[in-house]
Specification:
Blueprint: E1 5-8, E2 11-14, H1 25-29, E3 32-40, E4 43-45, H2 47-60, H3 69-82, E5 88-95, E6 112-119, H4 125-130, E7 132-136, H5 157-169, E8 173-177, E9 183-185, E10 190-195, E11 198-201, H6 212-223, E12 227-230, H7 235-239, E13 243-248, E14 252-259, E15 262-263, H8 271-283, E16 288-290
Parallel strand pairs: 7-8, 7-14, 11-12
Antiparallel strand pairs: 1-2, 1-6, 3-4, 3-5, 4-16, 5-6, 8-9, 10-11, 10-13, 13-14, 14-15
The structure holds 4'-deoxy-4'-aminopyridoxal-5'-phosphate (PMP).
Residues 36, 159, 185, 188-190, 209, 211-214, 247-249 line the site of 4'-deoxy-4'-aminopyridoxal-5'-phosphate (PMP).
EC number: 2.6.1.42
GO biological process, one term: L-valine biosynthetic process
Protein name: Branched-chain-amino-acid aminotransferase
Length: 301
């Protein structure tokens, strides 16, 4: 590919020209919101769900996205097309924009919108076959009444801190608990456990982001006839689960084979996890918006 095009403040610019001011409050304070979206064979998976979450995050922090959802959808699709991408990862960022060194958002008059679409670097196949080692961390998930995990804000320090803890512990991913000790999620993924043929995931009010992959897996599990429950659980439940897996835009569905040194499913990905991953990979091209419609210009819903 020749040059990568990035949408920045109203126009497409080359990657090397895509720079923002040091006075942007997204940079100075993490004042903004974002989404990570995936494109499968030209299909922007669950685009309207991602846009809804982006606009809700923005509404929550009183940030006005300077485009309608339809306009932003067109910009995202155009970003994929311009870069001639088939399988891609898209990052949409809306920052408060340029202000001064004070934190008051009043001084930022123009929110900034950025769309980066790039070739997807796939997670290695071996990782899905081997599964992840996960460790619970000392840092707790942000309390929903302090900084709600539903706001996908540019302030990801809570998540970065737990990733640091996981790195220090030499495991692949962190398991975050809330201030009551209930399991919430990973650093950037939701958690599911399987016990006696029932699948459980924590309700989001406990302090997990309402992941779009999470919701897709809940729907899929029900369609496939599994008993699926959103219910609180503790580390103990994870330790004695038949299977554990994580979901997210980047990881899709990935097995966890060890938690705090306890082997899960004898250290191997389980059949429910593998089943859900293979079925998930079938639906990713039918739920979303097609960037290169075959005959018409209609979006696939
Ligand atoms: N939790 C957190 C904290 C995340 O950052 C993500 C990634 N967006 C997820 C869960 C998974 O959400 P999704 O399936 O929408 O990517």
């Amino acid at each position: 590919m020749s040059s990568q095009w990035i949408f920045l403040s109203g126009e497409f610019v080359k990657k090397e020209d895509a720079v923002v001011s040091v006075y942007d409050h997204g940079f100075l304070y993490g004042d903004g919101v974002f989404e990570g979206i995936r494109v499968y064979s030209g299909n922007v998976f669950k685009l309207s769900e991602h846009l809804n979450r982006l606009y809700e995050s923005a509404q929550s922090i009183m940030l006005k996205v300077p485009y309608t959802k339809e306009e932003l959808e067109r910009i995202i699709v155009e970003s994929v097309r311009r870069n001639q991408l088939e399988s891609a990862y898209i990052r949409v960022v809306v920052s408060r924009g340029v202000g001064n060194l004070g934190l008051d958002p009043k001084c930022c008059s123009q929110p900034r919108v950025i769309v980066i679409a790039e070739e997807l670097s796939m997670f290695p196949k071996e990782l899905y076959q081997r599964g992840l080692r996960v460790g619970s961390v000392a840092s707790r998930r942000n309390r929903p009444d302090v900084l709600s995990p539903q706001v996908k804000s540019l302030n990801y320090l809570n998540n970065i801190l737990v990733k640091l803890e996981a790195n220090q512990a030499g495991v692949d991913e962190a398991l975050m608990l809330n201030d009551q000790g209930y399991v919430t999620e990973g650093s950037a993924d939701n958690i599911f456990i399987v016990k006696n043929d029932t699948i459980y995931t924590p309700p989001v009010y406990l302090g997990a982001l309402e992941g779009i992959t999470r919701n897709a897996i809940i729907d899929l599990a029900k369609e496939l006839g599994y008993e699926m429950k959103e219910a609180p659980f503790t580390r103990h439940d994870v330790y004695v689960a038949d299977e554990v897996f994580l979901t997210g835009t980047a990881v899709e569905v990935i097995a966890v084979v060890e938690v705090d040194g306890r082997k899960v499913h004898e250290g191997k990905p389980g059949k429910v996890t593998n089943h859900l991953l293979s079925e998930f990979r079938k639906i990713v091209v039918t739920h979303g918006v097609q960037c290169y419609p075959a005959e018409t210009n209609q979006a696939v819903v």
